[in-house]
Design brief:
The structure is a single chain. By secondary structure, the chain is an alpha/beta fold. A nine-stranded mixed sheet has the order 1-3-6-7-2-8-11-9-10, sandwiched between helices. Strands 4-5 form a two-stranded antiparallel ribbon. Helix 1 crosses helix 6, helix 3 crosses helix 5 and helix 6 packs across helix 7. The chain is globular and about 55 Å long.
Amino acid sequence: MIELEGVPELIDPVMVAAFEGWNDAGDAASGAVAHLDREWKGEVFAALDAEDYYDFQVNRPTVWLDNGVRKITWPTTRLSVVRIGGAKPRDLVLVRGIEPSMRWRSFCNELLGFAHELGVEMVVILGALLGDTPHTRPVPVSGVTSDADLARTMDLEETKYEGPTGIVGVLQEACTHAGVPAVSLWAAVPHYVSQPPNPKATLALLNRLEDLIDIRIPLGELPEDARAWQLGVDQLAAEDSEVAEYVQTLEEARDTADLPEASGDAIAREFERYLRRRDPSATTEPGDGSYRRDTAGGLSRGAKRKPEPEPPTGAGAPEGAAAGSDGGAEEAAGPSGTAGTPATPEAPEPPGKPEAPEKPGSSSPDA
């Protein structure tokens, strides 16, 4: 285990995790955790040893220059902490990394060791999957858990999924067996425009996270990026009659399915959520970054080395998009529409310039 100056003493901590790769369609989940880390100026305190969990021929290290000195950043999973200010301060432990190549059980046990030492009250794992959902409608976000009691008290779905799974599913089950409450939030990304980034799906995950753990997240430029992304896809779809017709078919199916949900209670919940987000008194500010440190050193397992520095912006490409199906089934199919198919890395495009949508029928849609 690699660590910095010890483990901070936290207030009502919740662990929020996301992993690039199979469970991260459009980089929506990893983008959400990156947004939290950026907006609240996360303080990295530990990183997992890359040698233990990554195949460097699959996830290659990156070389970059620091004042003319060449340095290497190894693919890994980093843990940072942010303090949410306000009337009722609390802390988030952010876990951001790449789906490991090997030794998944040991990987999960290391993360659970941190959760135990930090007094984490709940683990929330973010994911994104490909689905038959139109880009013009609100992004569906499913909240699932393996804990029947937690499903009832937090209005979540109790997962019934069977099939291939990724690190999100494995980590959630590890939490359940360890007695740590765990929830996964899944955003459905349109399979015909799956190229990263997808700020609209990232925004939907953050909105759902707000509701789940009752915090106010500063959104910055994300809403504007989401609008620009949708406008760009609208323009590209309008240039192809087949794609436009397919999107219209998805819209009609979605509207028909959502009609029973447009009840008075559902509308009231949405209105309450809108008012809560507009309430200036609910705004949370980042803390001053100071924590009371564990002078004993805290988690001292293994070698004590500082984590490798993050590369500058633009160094390294994401590991690819996730996949799945709609309606809360975590990992139903691989990124190319075939169960278990590994992802192919794609370089992200600017939010305002999405790549052209795939024509329906040009590739196998994800089940």
